[in-house]
Amino acid sequence: MENKKPLTLVKIGGNIIDNLVELSDFLSDFSKIEGYKILVHGGGKSATKLAESMGLVPQMIDGRRITDFAMLEVAVLIYAGQINTNIVAQLQANSTNAMGFSGADGNLIQSDKRNHPTINYGFVGDVNKLNTPLLETLLLNNLVPVFCAITHDGSGQLLNTNADTIASELAIALSEVFDVTLNYCFEKPGVLFDAEDDSSVIENMNPELYSKLKAQKAIHSGMIPKLDNCFNSLYKGVQKIKIGHHHMLQDAKSICTNIKL
Amino acid sequence: MENKKPLTLVKIGGNIIDNLVELSDFLSDFSKIEGYKILVHGGGKSATKLAESMGLVPQMIDGRRITDFAMLEVAVLIYAGQINTNIVAQLQANSTNAMGFSGADGNLIQSDKRNHPTINYGFVGDVNKLNTPLLETLLLNNLVPVFCAITHDGSGQLLNTNADTIASELAIALSEVFDVTLNYCFEKPGVLFDAEDDSSVIENMNPELYSKLKAQKAIHSGMIPKLDNCFNSLYKGVQKIKIGHHHMLQDAKSICTNIKL
């Protein structure tokens, strides 16, 4: 048994962010988590709405947004501006000493612009380097880092980055120093056998079951990169991963999906 | 002679931010400042542009923007999102370990919504409380704080706040621990006798000269709250204040206005 301090890492997705009541409920639950904690938030529909009002047409490939320069500007406005700043202010109102970050802040998350042989993803970054010592310093000063899904390349270029990946990369890096529980929170109670039936939560997911369900097409689209991130994180040292509704953060008996090797 | 460590605090205005070449030149100069330093930035024209494209009509009283809810949202998008995040990424490219903040981050700057007997300023905040110990911790960890002009009221409400005031309040609070030089940088070489003549810089400004020039209407409009902030800061302990072009940051012989008691 190693003697590491517990750290709770929570990623929330767009559907929670788009619902002000749900978001407020989530932030209240998040604030009650004891000990060291970090929040990573996705985007929600505001970026798409603002982009549309500016005449931009968002494009997606494999669940990831194609980010041209105009879309990057919108993502920075909404993710780093609107969502991150408002979440931090709301956490402060919940007596949580939150501090909002893009990856450029303190050089916390540096990424490489994605270089794909056939798809031009545009201004999308894949995480390359984390400033783990600074993150530790911030946590040990009782600050609660809140990350949006914007990183930088170290040469002045901001890059749009998948929020699930940011959460898993942070979890992996910090698992060397902390005993990390990574929670992926969304509007469902967990990974479902039947997407239409909220009572069909798969309570324990392991690589064998995952392969089987993928082959059966029971698991598909956006859930695949999410689960790939999870298993990758576990292989690389993350102690514990859960997927489910944010009620699992405060209610240990709440049903959710536990990802295990 | 007190044995305080030097801290350079720089405020840049909108005209530098709106000019990408000038901004890049400024950030390069700022990066070369040795020792502890903090940047506070104003807004520029992007917020007005975005507001206009959304059909909002910006209003000003005494050089201050009237901030209704829609204008606040635009200010948060542009100041905390676009400008702050891009400045931080560019400073990182200049090997400066910048970290961007609104006042909500780490509860660094808490403000009160302005309560004026006759003018409804809207979502405008007057600085009330600074988290000086946290700011010191960040500085002593060799981070370079970069503040936008958004603060919060501690109850979840973001507030638009005058950037000059933020700079002077930070300078006053930090002057107890550091030997602070506060630099107000803008596109002119200093406070001018004749606004049309850049060679008419007033190299030394004191309260007597200020009163005289105000009476003569040689100093008016936006320069008045700026100079009021300066003298207020000096009375409250700030060690040194300069107003001028950012070249003064690197060239000690560069002409500028020194504000003195």
In words, what does this structure look like?
The structure is a homodimer of 261-residue chains. Chain A has 261 residues and is α/β, with parallel strands linked by helices. Helices cover 35% and strands 24% of the residues of chain A. Chain A contains 8 helices and 14 strands. The first copy, chain A, has helices at residues 14-17, 20-31, 46-53, 69-93, 132-140, 163-174, 207-215, 223-235, and strands spanning 5-12, 36-41, 59-61, 64-66, 98-101, 109-113, 125-130, 144-147, 150-152, 158-160, 178-185, 204-205, 240-244, 257-259. Chain A has an 8-stranded mixed β-sheet with strand order 5-8-2-1-11-13-14-12, with helices on both faces. A two-stranded antiparallel sheet of chain A has the order 3-4. A two-stranded antiparallel ribbon of chain A has the order 6-7. Chain A starts with a strand and ends with a strand. The model of chain A has no long low-confidence stretch (mean pLDDT 93). Chain A binds chain B through residues 53-54, 73, 76-82, 84-86, 88-90, 92-93, 97-102, 104-107, 134, 137, 141, 143, 150, 152, 154-158, and chain B through 53-54, 73, 76-82, 84-86, 88-90, 92-93, 97-102, 104-107, 134, 137, 141, 143, 150, 152, 154-158.
